[in-house]
Amino acid sequence: MVVDVLGIPCAILIHAADMQDRDGGLKVIALAIAKFPSLKKIWADGGYAGQCIVKVRAETGVDLEVVKRSDEGSGALWQKDGEDPPVSAGFKVVKWRWLVERTFGWLGRHRRLSKDYEETTESSLACVRLALVWLLTRRLAAQ
User: Fold this and answer.
1) Distance CA 72, CA 115 (A)
2) Does residue 94 sit in helix, strand or coil?
């Protein structure tokens, strides 16, 4: 899913569970660029690092920037026997990091989307669209 800074989806692609997100990343970014040709920069999490950045830049011209966690690298530390694990300094808000996850949280409030019930990706996409219509109309009505 590609969302704007308010968490409103620009493009959605649902694929089978045997495909990695980074492999579908280029496809959903191409969908977003087709709808919004002025798109110049996209922020993504660490799962899209590496070749995905190179492919997106080469095929679309859009700058894909990976926003790293505040504790990036701490999970790679090895500890000796008897040593306590490193203690995190606490949760830190990282700008632009949780936009898509926030949208997934909003969608997860809908019963049909709380679990993966759908047999086809088309019906799953239809349920996501219905939930987004409900969410956006509620926001417009509140204004």
Assistant:
1) 30
2) coil
Interatomic CA distance for residues 129 and 143, integer angstroms: 21
Instruction: Quote the tokens at residue 35.
Output: 């709808």
- Residue 114's φ and ψ, nearest 5 degrees, are -70, -20
User: 10 Å Cβ neighbour count for 53?
Assistant: 18
CA pair distance 37, 30, nearest whole angstrom: 10
The residue among 8, 4, 5, 2 whose CA lies nearest residue 136 is: 8
Whether the Cβ atoms of residue 11 and residue 31 lie closer than 8 Å to each other: yes
**Residue 3: beta bridge partners?**
9
**What is the separation, in whole angstroms, between the first and last Cα of the chain?**
26
Contact 29, 81 (CB under 8 A): no
Q: 46 near 23, Cβ under 8 Å?
A: no
Can you name the residues that pair with 42 across neighbouring β-strands?
Answer: 64
What are the pLDDT digits (tens) for 92-139? Answer: 667 777 888 888 888 888 888 877 778 888 998 999 999 999 998 988
